[in-house]
Amino acid sequence: MNPERLRIGVVGAGLGSAPHFKSLEELRDQVEVAWVHVRHPESLGFASLPAGAKVTPRYEDLLEDPRLQALLVLTPPNTHLALVEQAALAGKHVLVEKPLEISLTKARALVEVCEAQGVQLAVMLQHRLRPGALALAALLETGRLGELLGASAAVRWWRAQSYYDEPGRGTLSRDGGGVLITQAVHTLDLLLSFTGLPQRVFGLARTSPVHRMEGEDCASATLQFANGAIGTLEATTAAFPGYSERIELNFSQGTATLAGGELVVHFTDGHTLRAGASESFGSGANIIGFDHAPHRAVLEDFFSAARTGSTPAVSGRSALKAQMLIEAIMASAASGQPVSMAPSG
């Protein structure tokens, strides 16, 4: 057993914790899960929890443990700021489940408190560490594709009404909205990691007759980037039975398509590049029907950052960009006017 294992605690053990716990089991040589904090331990299915972890209804048990170095915060979005603020003040590094918080104001406050306290903050936006996405990011670093001309992103998923019948699902107070901040945030984050933020956004959003919910289940937007490139976005949870998400980037020297995790790049000189593989992202009825390997990659990177002080690959500050875009889309949809965006997060 590795004596240098990171000692961590997990906050929350709901449905979304499954890929985290699977990943932690596979990373047991690197990390010791000392605590799991849930408000009602009696309702847990203990078989899924890491071996040896103490279960407690007191968050203070984790904060007061001087040997605990980091926390995974896997609770609903509207709880993140308060929990992360306490963790940062206690000197604990934090990985938080997406999104950062329910609003850009709270998300910024969360990032800033971690920076002020000198603790690492990572976000579980695992699409960035899928093999196809990493290959595209590396290619863009070379400049081989040339100038960005256009971009599109489509997230056409399905959620039954029973999904939104769960208390808090799709509400402004708990989730911060609907499809954009809960489902499409992964694809928006990945898109912006390739393109940067647009300068102007024109958005539309609605709740379709398919769902009874407070937030939006259909949204679209037109994006204009600093160099004049134009982008489009479509996001919905009303597309039965659910389809693989897709990003397409048109450049002066070729086109890159990332669909369902598989990257295909066609260069104007006739060459083709392929990387990654097609896989399920939980786009349909089985909302956790996806490979947990990208979760494991984000966690392993976070644990390394906590040990070394390096910036996590999916840092809190970088994750602000997706929330900036979501807020701009919804503001434009509400006003019927385009929204100008700041050049950085």
Features:
single chain, 345 residues, alpha/beta, Rossmann fold, Dihydrodipicolinate Reductase, domain 2, 2 domains, nine-stranded mixed β-sheet, globular
Overall number of structural domains: 2
Query: What is the spatial order of strands in the main beta sheet?
Result: 14-13-12-11-7-10-9-8-15
**Tally of extended strands?**
15
Shape: globular
Q: Radius of gyration, rounded?
A: 20 Å
Any guess at the CATH architecture of the largest domain? 2-Layer Sandwich
Concise synopsis of the structure shown:
The chain is of the alpha/beta class.
Please tell me about this protein's structure.
- The chain has 345 residues and is an alpha/beta fold.
- The chain folds into two domains: 6-126 and 296-315, NAD(P)-binding Rossmann-like Domain (Rossmann fold); 128-285 and 321-340, Dihydrodipicolinate Reductase, domain 2, CATH 3.30.360.
- The chain contains nine helices and 15 strands.
- It has helices at residues 18-26, 59-63, 80-89, 104-117, 131-142, 161-165, 179-195, 293-308, 316-335, and strands at residues 6-11, 31-37, 54-56, 70-73, 93-97, 121-124, 148-156, 200-206, 218-224, 230-236, 246-251, 254-259, 262-267, 272-276, 339-340.
- Strands 14-13-12-11-7-10-9-8-15 form a nine-stranded mixed β-sheet. A six-stranded parallel β-sheet has the order 3-2-1-4-5-6, sandwiched between helices.
- Helix 1 links the parallel strand 1 (6-11) and strand 2.
- Helix 4 (104-117) runs antiparallel to helix 9 and helix 7 (179-195) packs across helix 9.
- The longest helix is centred in the C-terminal third of the chain and has 20 residues, at 316-335.
- It is globular, with a radius of gyration of 20 Å.
- It starts with 5 loop residues before the first strand and ends in a 5-residue tail after the last strand.
- The mean pLDDT is 94.
